[in-house]
Amino acid sequence: HFLQSDPEFVAAINTRDAKLRFTRVWAVCKKKRRCENEDRTEKHDEDFAPGMKPVVNNHGGCGNVQPQVRQAALQLKAAFDVVQEDGPKRRETVPITPEMAHGILRRISEEDIRHMGLNSDYARPEWMIITVLPVPPPPVRPSISMDGTGTGMRNEDDLTYKLGDII
To answer: Where do the coiled-coil regions begin and end (predicted)?
Structure first.
């Protein structure tokens, strides 16, 4: 969820062009290092103007520190600063598996997807990770001619070899 009191974020989500909105929301969110969970239940100024101030709901942040995500070749790695009880803080790096990334992307709400400039009917973030890879059965896969004439030796095509590599 987003923080409505952040004017930079409100300006970003009010951008009409979806691509530009996505870029602006990303620019605002990449600076955040903690999922803020401000407690807005305290009302110290209630004595001066009771009932005049609109109630602002807590946006429900978890309060966790957000890792720095880095790409190393074809892997994503999350870097955390871990503070030990008796020693200084140290940097811990954890690989982000496709299952972890898919789970994180699946939990993005419809409202947040709209705020990012995506259309949830056509471009949900979790759809960008392949979870099912349909493989045609061997009789359906085309075979190729080894000598190029069509009458010589037959062999499996390149797709069949690549599917074997994946599986």
So the answer is: none
Those residues with Cβ within 8 angstroms of residue 131's Cβ, 6 or more apart along the chain or in another chain: 102
27's CB contacts (< 8 A; 6+ apart) are: 12
Determine if the pTM surpasses 0.70. no
What's the pLDDT at 139?
76
Diameter of the chain measured on Cα atoms: 94
Helices and strands (DSSP H and E) totals, the chain: 5, 5
pLDDT digits 0-9 by tens, 66-90: 888 899 888 999 998 877 777 778 8
DSSP state of 125: G
What radius of gyration, in Å, describes the C-alpha atoms of the chain? 25
Tokens of 30: 């990449």
Report angle CA 88, 77, 129 to the nearest 5 degrees: 150
Which residues are paired to 94 by β-bridges? 78
In Å, how far are 89, 152, 156 from 84, measured between CA atoms? 6, 69, 57
pLDDT tens figures, 25-66: 999 888 887 776 655 444 444 444 555 444 445 555 677 778
CA dihedral 4, 9, 12, 18 (to 10 degrees): -70
Q: Which residues pair with 79 in a beta bridge?
A: 68, 93
